[in-house]
Task: structure prediction
Amino acid sequence: MSIEALKQKIQSRTFWETDTEESMLPDRNLTRSSYLSKLNQLADINVVTSIMGQRRCGKSVIGRQYIKKLWDDGIPRKNILYINFFLKPVADVREEKNFISIVEWWVEQFVDRDQPSLLILDEVQELENWDENVASILEDASMPCRLIITGSNSKMLSDELSEKLGGRYTTLQVFPFSFAEFCQFNEIEYVTNNIERYLLAGGMPEVLKVQNEEQKIQLISDIINSTVKHDIVSRYNPTNPRLLFALIDFCRTAFSQELSIKSITKAVLQNTQLPKGNLALTQTTSSLVSDYIGYMQDVYFLYSPPTYSHRTKEILKRCVDKIYLSDLCLSEYEAQSQKGRLLENMVYIELLRNNFRVQRYLGYRNRKLEIDFYIAKGEKSALIQVCWQLGDSNENSELWEREFGNLHHTKKAVPKFVVSLDDAVVSPFGDVRHLNIMQFYAWAAQT
Result:
């Protein structure tokens, strides 16, 4: 394609004309105000803003919502250039020389230098030598524009940006819909009674729009396959793709459970037609399992929080303690059997969404005390246990001892909470407080 033809195709997809604005945002568009506010706060900082998150979680839509906001604030339309590197009609812009020509053409022909300007590069990893080009634009004094990039692989962007830009970039992580956004999107009440509906549906915007169950299953499968193909295989070229897919299937059923690399490897080998029985092969497979879980974390498919313990050796031998899915629409198991696992996964993601550092916690006082989450933000920290429902303290004494007692017996002098769906529970210990799930949401947002 000639550069002139490419310019025309790029210009037709920039949403500069008012009659294209309607196609810029999806049907049932939900404005994600918290992310737009964060982007606005970064407007005057001379760094690259990296919008990161799992594939299909809404990164591109947030970028386009931000464009609309800037237009509404009075910035000239042509001062914002949006390039989506996944669009096949403009695939030639992925070539470095073409990209440089397009950006120079935009700056010279359209940008009003007396007004703020913005270049948004969507799925930037598709651009040839993308890191060098991003760094070049940031360094070039003749380029007046602010830079926002999006991507789906945290390690790729952080490694390359760190090398090329030093500390001159900041990351905005995007998550699927929160419970509050889910309720707003579906026009239902933001109350405890709708929590289970959210746990079963998840928060992926595209998945929530599909009503047909078979189509929904197919869409989720497409999201997984796309994540593997574009974000894992193209980046890491795994030597055993069959093991990778078997591991993904395992993680979709084993989230919020105590795990180890050894137990994961054993389960995957038992449930696939991969060779088994050879000790050396099993050890090799364990190494691959560890690597592949790392890849899945890099692309935001799952999370595995580290374990905090007073005993260092406990941290060293627990390279995987628990895994949590990035969104519950990815789960695949009988949801009615262990709904507490769904709730625990949801609480974990909500803590990340609110910028908490989250660890598993092991404490000791004549016995091992396992706590779901040890969290910190700034100088504040807390311990949290998650339970679906506590029930009667006499009938469920073991449950109450595990949830409240484990917290009470820890030596950490921090706030301690048991989170559940129960409306009103009186804690048996003065140093442990019960939070209904809605109270937890309010607490997490305000802390």
About this structure: The chain has three domains: 3-173, 179-330, 354-446. The mean pLDDT is 90. Residues 3-173 form a domain with the Rossmann fold fold (CATH 3.40.50.300).
